[in-house]
Amino acid sequence: VDDEGQVTYKKRPTNEIMRAIQLGIQNSVGNEAQKPSRDLLTQDFGVCEIVDFPREGGKLTMAHTMSSFTFKTYAPLAFRHFRKLYNIDISQFLASICGEELEELSNPGASGSIFYRTADDNFIIKTVQHKEAKYLQRLLLQYYLTLTQNPRTLLPKFYGLYCYQCGSKNIRFVVMNNLLPSTIRLTEKYDLKGSTYKRQASNAERAKSSPTFKDLDFKALHETGLSLEADIYTSLIECISRDCLVLESFRIMDYSLLLGIYNLDQTLRERERQRPTSSVGAAATVGFAGGAPSTSGAGAATSASALTASAAAASASFDESDGNQQQQRRAGRGGSVEGLQRGWSLKKISVFNTPIESINAENTAPIDLHSDEMDITPVGGIPARNAKGERLFLYMGIIDILQNYRLFKKMEHAMKSIITDGDTVSVHNPRFYSERFQLYLKNDVFKKVESLDEPHMLGPN
Ligand code: ATP
Ligand code: CA
Ligand code: CA
Questions:
Q1: C-alpha to C-alpha distance for 96 and 22, rounded to whole angstroms
Q2: Nearest CA to ligand 1 atom 8
Q3: Which residues of 94-106 are buried (b: 16+ CB within 10 A; e: fewer)?
Q4: What distance in Å separates the CA atoms of residue 308 and residue 451, rounded to the nearest whole number?
Q5: Which ipTM did the prediction report?
Q6: Is the CB of 91 under 6 A from ligand 1?
Q7: Ligand closest in space to the Cα of 397
Q8: Which atom of ligand 1 is nearest to the CA of 156?
């Protein structure tokens, strides 16, 4: 915040950065759209397109009310290809990013990056350091190879790399997939690395309305981890292992698993409490309004058949009045929902943007959520249970992958290992980092159970 009370990043007002980003991307994507479609060539990965945006308007740009700036698009054709791979069409991409104001998120990280989320929940824009942007450029060809070999991945989906230049300031940023739905209130959110060193959310972070917790906080709240059904557990761990192999080969480290937990049963209880005149029985009936009759009755909250449900299928019953908006959201998050009806007949789809699709877990049992539960259950989460037996849907992905060991981590490790046990320091060599990360997720965070329906899974009560 500067002297005049304006929020700034690198001494530029953040709302001006936001508008410049929107103008720049609109122009850039428009230019790409005009170029004929063709196969990618190696040299496309090194291209940087530069456009000036003088305040008074230029040859190819409109007049605007901000300071004059220059906008750079890195590897435009390569990113166009990535977007196509994930079925993101140009008009949708433009509508998401330029159609409405972006929401600035508070960043729990130490890097000082700013984050924006698009109003339709589809994309995250993150400012990155110069060396991170350079690194992504170097990575791009390999990344392309990885995605085409294996589109089912929890790695970040990068949809664009840009630079906003104003005066002597350069602000670089990436556009990527948003992992956490904001249409629902997530119960908890974790940034997990498999380290214990300084892995606890600060008091300032805890005080936020939606804090990001860390490894030690997870241990305190979920000592025995989160239970997943065997098939899903196996798909997830395989996916993480494949992704880690790629990260290791790039000598990348210090990444995290971002994990959002949506606790369906807790949400239902909270709703119950907020409903002024309801009794338990009455509430169960309220849930049927407008929905198909259900045979599971008031006991549905713990009904065994609901446990293997996938949130993707549940979304089929979103409120009509909100239909258009939801339709768009669903399209953006994977475009998959049309194929996922109540009977769980999976249509073959070519995008893998929801968590459940990312890990290639298709073998999900028929859906049997209560209609009032469906209304509050978002798309594509991974079904799980906590130790209390509550039904959870998980949202996740690997984030912050632009740190290369060789470039700038050696120093940090040398310093930290003097003051603590080297093994628990979160910065170590990439091999060590990857192994520890995988072991942690496999053994401490996720637990394999035969079925989420087993009586002992329902917890102590
Ligand atoms: P540092 O380097 O200090 O760890 P950073 O500025 O590089 O921080 P990240 O680690 O990338 O930031 O992310 C910080 C937080 O932003 C995450 O913990 C998460 O809450 C949120 N976030 C990051 N990427 C995404 C994403 N793709 N979708 C949703 N939320 C995200
Ligand atoms: Ca991080
Ligand atoms: Ca970082």
A1: 10
A2: 109
A3: bbbbbeeebebbe
A4: 8
A5: 0.99
A6: no
A7: 1
A8: 27
CA of 64 to the centre of ligand 1 (A): 31
The distance of Cα 420 from the centroid of its chain, to the nearest Å, equals 32
How far is it, in rounded angstroms, from Cα 32 to Cα 11? 31
3-state secondary structure of 283: helix
Homologous superfamily, domain 188-458: 2-Layer Sandwich (3.30.810.10)
222 touches 386 (CB < 8 A): yes
Closest ligand 1 atom to the C-alpha of 112?
6
Query: What residues does the ion ligand 3 have nearby, CB within 5 Å?
Result: 111, 400
User: What mean pLDDT is predicted for residues 401-418?
Assistant: 62
Judge whether residue 243 has pLDDT over 70.
yes
The ranges assigned to domains in the chain are 8-177, 188-458
Q: 84 forms bridges with which residues in the sheet?
A: none
Q: Mention the CATH class of domain 8-177.
A: alpha beta
Q: What is the CA radius of gyration of the chain?
A: 23
- 178: Cβ below 6 Å to ligand 1? yes
Q: What is the pLDDT of residue 416?
A: 55
pLDDT value, residue 200:
92
Selection from 332, 334, 329 nearest residue 356 by Cα: 334
Q: Is the pLDDT reported for residue 128 higher than 80?
A: yes
Nearest bound ligand to the CA of residue 109: 1
Query: Structure tokens of 63?
Result: 């007049």
- Over the stretch 155-190, which tens digit does the pLDDT of each residue have? 999 999 999 999 999 999 999 999 998 888 899 999
108 ligand 1 Cβ < 6 A: yes
3-state secondary structure of 454: coil
* Cα 254 to ligand 2 centroid, rounded to whole Å: 7
Pocket probe mutation, ligand 1, options 104, 115, 122, max atoms within 8 Å of Cβ = 115
Residues with CB under 5 A from ligand 2 (ion): 400
Which pLDDT band, with edges at 50, 70 and 90, does 230 fall under? Answer: very high
In which band, very low, low, confident or very high, does the pLDDT at 296 lie, cut at 50, 70 and 90? very low
Does 188-458 match 8-177 at the fold level?
no
213 token code pair = 């917790």
Q: Render 337-375 in DSSP notation, one character per residue.
A: GGG--TT--PPP-S---SHHHHTT----PPP---HHHHH
The residue whose CA has the least distance to atom 2 of ligand 1 is: 111
